[in-house]
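Task: complex structure prediction.
Instruction: return structure tokens for all chains below.
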Amino acid sequence: MEFIQAIGQYEFLQKALFTSVVVGIICGIIGSFIILRGMSLMGDAISHAVLPGVALSYAFGVNFFIGAVATGVLTAIGIGYVSQNSRIKNDTAIGILFTSAFALGIILITMLKSSTDLYHILFGNVLAVRPSDMWVTVGIGIVVIVTVYAFFKELLLTSFDPTIAAAYGLRNNLIHYLLMTLLTMVTVASLQTVGIVLVVAMLITPAATAYLLTDRLWVMIYLAAGFGVISAIIGLYFSFTYNLASGATIVMVATALFLLAFLFSRKHGVVWKSIRARQKRVELSK
Amino acid sequence: MVHAVKVSRLHVSYFGNEVVRDVSFSVNQGSMVGIIGPNGAGKSTLIKAMLGLIPKDKGDIRFYGKETNEVRKQIAYVPQRSQIDWTFPITVMDTVLIGTYPSVGLFKFPKKKEKAWALECLKKVGLEEYRDRQIGELSGGQQQRVFLARALAQKPELLLLDEPFVGIDVASEETIIRILKELQVEDKTIVVVHHDLSKANTYFDQLLLLNKELIKFGAVDEVLNREIMSKAYARELQFLEKAEVTA
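Output:
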């Protein structure tokens, strides 16, 4: 209750809540495609790869969004190039490139002695969201939602059946890089809420929870966005009430939701599955 | 007369090996052609190259006298079954609906008209009662029928099928053949990569025997004779004869 009163009272908390909700929605949307394409590791990679871009942006005094998107997309292209032009497998290419980018980011931040607090970039500090950050997040949110809506058919088809997509004349790699760009933008938007290290959890966990509950892609996307929002609100409550890092509390809520679905999903939950298996055995032994 | 398919002097490599060598043939509209040949003969590669899914080294491919990219909407492709994610959150109905995507176009969604048509295609393959099932819950034969329904939903002039009968039940195979023959009556052209030689004579009017090079293309009885077949299946035949001697 105190939390609700505080929201009414403090503008910084309203901004934090609003930003977290937007982040929850767009992470759920993009995360759904990320897990269906088996690119969870790529999500982790891109989120770490924005660090040098953030550092450089602060150094040159431009909005960190520009630098972050640049290094994120460059890393995605680098990963694609290395895995397609050598015998190095994709997950290895991801491992090499994102750790390099991340290491470079740490060195840059230390060298530039920038005023940005590395701790806040890594772990998020949603209660310090500035109005300009909030509007960047809202802008990214609109771009993500409109793009996914406009290209829904193409995203579905290239994720489900790339061979047929190619036979229809669709360029699979264009859709891939479009998704990578959106992923980078979502990562940037999530920086202040959950931080670089935990962005991947916001991308994957709500989407995975939704995946256990439905057999329709659009339902999965709505559910994932919904779980993202619930995690953001409840997580923020714990963060505010007990003075904990917002990223960590939001992720813990998302994980709790996942556990519930993992156990109790009607179709895929382990509890129902074992009950059904037992019923079957009893029936057969009659 | 314009041919439905005209392939001229096609060369295709796969991982540095030339698997299709100087292949030329043309298919008349309304015919049903089987592509046969031993394992590794380049049958699937030929079909994929025709669709531009893998690059060709050399040669020319025309459909109705036009380049592949100009006529993609009219060409339906049913690939080998194993290549997709069977746990993807998609229903049978929505899988068939994908066939309408090329005609729906960018930034638009399938509407009532497309959904009604997709359902009709699903009925043709006898699976309308499975419309709300997730695609992975069906049997292999049923899945193959769903992909044929998706091809039908595209309203194609030409169908290319890659080993559609591998690992499926007899009833599904019969359904698929019946539908293909119906399409042929409507003057559609059908090309099938086929493995099982025993039924080749009843399914197709023409056969294309491939073993990297084109060995023979012609009416079924012209191709299915010992002399011609032994050119493609030399190794397999030797093995058979040895087995007969030792037996």
